[in-house]
Amino acid sequence: MTYLITGATGEVGARVVKQLVEREERPRLFVRDGAKAQARFGQNVDVRVGDLGDRESLTAALRGVESLFLVTSGPNIPMLDEIAARAARDADIGHVVKLSSLDVEQSLAIGAWHERGEAAIRASGVLFAFLRPTGFMTNLLAWAGSIQAEGVVRTSTGNGKRAFIHPDDIAAVAVRALTSHEFVGDALALTGPEALSFAEVAARLGAAIGRDLRYETLSDEEARLRFQATGASDEETEAHVELWRAIREGRVGTTTDGVQDVLGRRPIGLDRWITENVDAFRSKAA
Q: How many helices (H) and strands (E) would you count in the chain?
């Protein structure tokens, strides 16, 4: 079998590639920077250079492929998913496994982008499986700078909770979906094992680095200005402010049995992720 992996140097895509290689598969990677991908994965992969917005380059990369792992992000998700679905249909591949979002179920802005992308894939007639994870544990690395410099975590999520998921679990589910047709037509809701408030997460990080961290609550406007300062577009900024508000209001704290159902084990907990990444939060002077 040949599997085409997009987003192959990202949080989940890279893990999908690694797990496929460990299964003695030779995945094909569709990337913008071929040298970067080859340097990362060596001779264990085939690399095709192109862009998801370029249907011609994607169609060429899909020739001879059994399954496509599709990773798209940002406001262009619907357009990119539609291009990918049409290219997959033209190439007559087995099925598409799309990395979507559990926020689809709340019709939040980011979820709405994925929802429209899912609809485009359904409309194309290709077989599909949708993976709908909640927030990635790796997103917590965004706190590293303020923790190192100030010993503080700032969010506008209040006491709301999120069932953060380890990207290794998402990748393991993706590999199962890619390498079989067992989940064709399914939308798999994937979360970590427990829903935690951001203050609870900060407390666990503080315990791991031996430091009392201060948790500060931001207003929506303060959160908006901070996120805009990262260079995000207005559309992306508003989507994130809306998500944080939904967390604060208790609308996205669901836990599911999705990982257990697919992998036959409990999802990886936050404490293991913290152990794996604790050095990122330690003060450079420590």
A: 12, 11
pLDDT tens digits, one per residue of 21-44? 999 999 999 999 999 999 999 999
- Residue 123 CB-half CA count within 13 A: 12
The domain of 123 spans 3-138+164-193+256-263
Q: How many CB atoms neighbour CB 156 within 10 A? A: 23
- 98 part of a folded domain: yes
Instruction: Write down the mean pLDDT value for the chain.
Output: 96
On the CB side of 238, CA atoms within 13 Å amount to 5
The dihedral built from the CA positions of residue 272, 276, 278 and 281, taken in this order, carries a sign that is: negative
In a domain, 65, yes or no: yes
Secondary element (H or E) of residue 189: strand 187-190
Q: Give the span between the Cα atoms of 210 and 220, in whole angstroms.
A: 30
Which residues are registered as beta bridge partners of 137? none
210 inside domain:
no
β-strand 161-162 against 196-197: which pairing, if any?
Answer: antiparallel
Q: Which residue in the block uniquely carries the two structure tokens 């805009």?
A: 228
Q: Residue type at 212?
A: D
Q: Where are the alpha helices (DSSP H) in 62-194?
A: 77-91, 109-124, 144-150, 167-178
Q: What is the CATH number of the domain that holds 180?
A: 3.40.50.720
Which residues are CB-contacts of 279 (< 8 A; sequence separation ≥ 6)? none
